[in-house]
Inverse folding.
């Protein structure tokens, strides 16, 4: 299947897969290394979303190189980029409501409890 692709398409697809994998790895390392919930919330919403986006772009390029449109991957990308920030915002609001402790100090302009 991939032998029929042009060499430039194979290189571009491999590069997007590597970039997506690196972003996913950074997101996974962030989940392990960050010390509290609020910091850990940042890793999957930013880095892992970009990692999945790289893999989906590689899949779209495979379809385009074979003469197909790749509508499924485009819809998955749009859905992911819309739902990831919304779900992160809802998780952060729930954590604030439950008073989940944070290790970072509050900003200087915020009132201290």
């Amino acid at each position: 299947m991939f032998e029929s692709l042009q060499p430039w398409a194979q290189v571009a697809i491999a590069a997007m897969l590597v970039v997506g994998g690196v972003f996913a790895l950074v997101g996974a390392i962030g989940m392990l290394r960050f010390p509290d919930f609020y910091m850990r919330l940042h890793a999957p919403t930013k880095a892992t979303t970009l990692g999945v986006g790289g893999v989906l772009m590689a899949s779209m390029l495979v379809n385009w190189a074979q003469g197909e449109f790749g509508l499924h991957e485009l819809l998955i990308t749009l859905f992911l980029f819309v739902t990831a920030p919304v779900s992160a915002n809802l998780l952060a609001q729930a954590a604030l409501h439950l008073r989940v402790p944070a290790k970072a100090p509050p900003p200087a302009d915020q009132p201290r409890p």
Observations:
- The mean pLDDT is 87.
- The chain is about 75% helix and 0% strand.
- Residues 73 and 100 are 36 Å apart (CA to CA).
- The radius of gyration is 19 Å.
